Amino acid sequence: MHKNIISKLVLSLALIATGMGISVAGDVEEKLIAHARSAAPAAIGAGATIVINGKVVAEGTNGWTCLPEVMPGDRAPVCIDAVWGEMMGALGAKAAFSANGVGISYMLMGEPQGSGVSNSDPYHPNPSEADDYTETGPHLMLIVPRELLEGMSDDPSSGGPYVMWGDTDYAHIMVPVDRGE
Ligand SMILES: [Cu+2]
After folding, report:
1. How far, in Å, from the CA of 1 to the mean position of ligand 1?
2. What pLDDT, in 10s, does the model give residues 94-140?
3. From the CA of 139, how far away is ligand 1's center (Å)?
C-alpha cells in the first residue's frame, strides 16, 4: 500500500512535469507514447513519430505524427499528417493558414469528457461555457481547400460530418466514426 501511494505520487509529479515542458520519466513516457499512438489505426500509430510537449520522443517511419493531447491538459490523443501539422502550427501561432491539399487526422479515442471545444471559435476563453460547445466521440478530421466546405453542415448534433471552426483559417470537417468494437 505504501508503495502504491509512492508510485501514485511519482506519477502525479511526472504529470506535473509534463505540463511544465520538462522531460518525463521513462515508464510515464511509455504510457504517454502508447496513449498518443492509440488515436490512429494500429498500423499508422505503430509507425508514427511521437511528439510530447513539442519534443520528438520517438522517431517514426510513415510520415504520421501522434500527440498524447491536442490542447495542453486535454488528454485527447491525435495522429496527424503533414498538412495537419502545418495547420496546428498556424493555429498555435494564430497565423494564417490555407489548405492546398487534403489533410487527414485521427482521433479514434474521442475526447475525454469536458475537453471539447467551441465549434466556431478555436480561441474561446472558456469553451465549456460556449453556446456551441461540442464534444465528439471517435472521429477523423479532414482539412480540404475552403471551397469544398461550401454547403456542408456546421451542426455537431446532426449525427453526420460537420464543419468545425468554419469561419476561420483552421476550418476542417469532423467525421464521427465507430471504432467497430
Ligand atoms: Cu475538430
Report:
1. 42
2. 999 999 899 999 999 998 888 899 999 999 999 999 999 999 999 99
3. 9
And the C-alpha cell for 33? 507514447
Q: 70 C-alpha vs ligand 1 centroid, how far in Å?
A: 10
- 32 alpha carbon – ligand 1 mean position (Å): 21
Examine residue 41 and state whether it is found in any structural domain, yes or no. yes
Q: How many domains does the chain divide into?
A: 1
In the chain, the largest separation of any two C-alpha atoms, in whole Å, equals 60
- What range defines the domain where residue 100 resides? 2-176
Task: State the average pLDDT for the chain.
Answer: 87
The pLDDT tens digits for 47-65 are 999 999 889 999 999 999 9
What is the distance in A from the centroid of ligand 1 to the CA of 68? 16
How far, in Å, is the centroid of ligand 1 from the Cα of 172? 6
pLDDT confidence of residue 158: 86
171 within a domain of the structure (yes/no): yes
Is the pTM above the cut of 0.90? no
Q: Rg for the chain (alpha carbons), in Å?
A: 17
Residue 152, amino acid: M
